[in-house]
Amino acid sequence: MSIENDLWYLIGSVRGGENRIRIIRLLEERPHNANQLAGRLGLSYNTVRYHLDRLCEHGIVEAGGQRYGELYHLTERFERHREAFEAVTERAG
Fold first, then answer.
1. What is the pLDDT of residues 21-42, one digit of tens each?
2. CDD domains per the record (predicted)?
3. Cβ(36)–Cβ(8) under 8 Å?
4. Domain range for residue 34?
5. Residue 60 and residue 26: Cα distance in Å, rounded?
6. Alpha carbon 51 to chain centroid distance?
7. DSSP, res 63
8. pLDDT score at 1
9. What is the pLDDT of residues 49-84, one digit of tens each?
């Protein structure tokens, strides 16, 4: 599956797309762990973990470091196709 299709599925075609965009935007600033993301976004830890798991499954984000408090960051795959993210985000409204 292409990254544009992955992004459209993750962002444009599901209810959680807005939160996934918000997570990606924060990860553009710097790596965060799930607890930090939950606090900054005003979401529950479990909700953030759910979205991170989906983003990891599709190669958009990846975790690094120790299992406890591991930091999430955007993948090289995402960085190479950032324009696709912006296009999908714009079309998703």
1. 999 999 999 999 999 999 999 9
2. HTH_ARSR
3. no
4. 3-92
5. 13
6. 7
7. E
8. 61
9. 999 999 999 999 999 877 777 999 999 999 999 999
Domain count, the chain: 1
CATH of the domain at 53: 1.10.10.10
Alpha-carbon distance of 66 to 47, in angstroms, equals 21
- pLDDT at position 65: 72
Answer yes or no: pTM beyond 0.70. yes
Six-digit token string for 58: 């599709």
